[in-house]
Amino acid sequence: MGAAIIDGKALGIEIEKGLSERIRFLSEREVTPHLAVIIVGDDPASHVYVRNKERACERVGIASTRIDLASDVNQEDLISAVQKLNSDESVHGILVQSPLPNGIDEIAVIEAIEPTKDVDGFHPSNLGRIVMGDRNGLIPCTPSAVMEILRHSGLELGGKRAVVIGRSRIVGMPLSILLAQKGADSTVTIAHSKTKSLEEICREADILIAAVGRPEMVKSSWIKPGSTVIDVGINRINDDSRSSGTRLVGDVEDGAKEIAGIITPVPGGVGPMTIAMLMSNTVLAAEKGH
Ligand code: NDP
What we know:
Layout lengths: L3 E2 L2 H21 L5 E7 L3 H17 L2 E7 L5 H12 L6 E4 L9 H7 L11 H9 L8 H12 L8 E5 L6 H9 L6 E5 L6 H6 L3 E4 L17 E4 L3 E4 L7 E4 L12 E2 L6 H20 L1
Parallel strand pairs: 1-11, 2-3, 2-4, 5-6, 5-7, 7-8, 8-11
Antiparallel strand pairs: 9-10
Helix pairs in contact: 1-9, 2-9, 6-7, 6-9
Bound molecules: NADPH dihydro-nicotinamide-adenine-dinucleotide phosphate.
NADPH dihydro-nicotinamide-adenine-dinucleotide phosphate binds next to helix 9.
């Protein structure tokens, strides 16, 4: 029997619907949640991501402002654009779309964002709160999306062996901490490019999360039968059978769905849920700001 496939798009829409009540409550107090996105340069993928975020804002009733800066903007000007948004009371969420051009220190830009408006959850203050088990911060959207998917699937996480492949500061590392936190109580292994015997480690995983960025790197034979597989990866590969000449695949081989108990597809799994969590963080920031 094949795995249950989580429909991240439908789940994301459900979450967005749940926000509408809170947005209505805010609007009765003359507050409209407002997300400001800074995009630097003309990287096509970044423009697609930003457009998707703007569309989500429109769907749920969040105001959005987009600030386009030239690819040769200097760090000082970028940071002053962030600071201007920090002091704008009508703006509740600030996001600087990555990647940033070479020569700009991404961490310095993130640190310039007022933590209460850091809806990406990348500011050290928000990441630090995760380590402290303090739930008052803003949680990065992709880790939060994965936790929401796991919650929705009704899976008991306590005592389960979770393996997270990837230790980035935006996905793998915060997600690993969330899974291990009191209340979630999974036993977590963090794997990365220096990990030895990755296949064997994966085969022990009740919950396997791939956040690597390598197309179909995780083979079906690595999957423990009946396990939960969350594929965070988004990789564009060539496919001559498509009119576009490309298609999106995850980090997990397609055949894994024949072995896992629950699996997220790519596209349509973690991606749309990540956007829903961004909307959720923006509403939360607006509520806290008022
Ligand atoms: P990074 O490149 O920052 O991190 C990748 C991680 O994978 C690193 O920790 C790296 O190890 C590890 N890795 C690389 N090669 C291997 C290997 N052969 N074996 C084991 N581990 C390996 O990527 P991100 O965390 O930003 O993103 C990961 C993926 O998730 C990408 O495909 C990205 O597009 C996708 N993504 C999807 C989102 C969504 O909304 N669905 C949102 C954000 C990202 P090391 O640390 O040793 O270098």
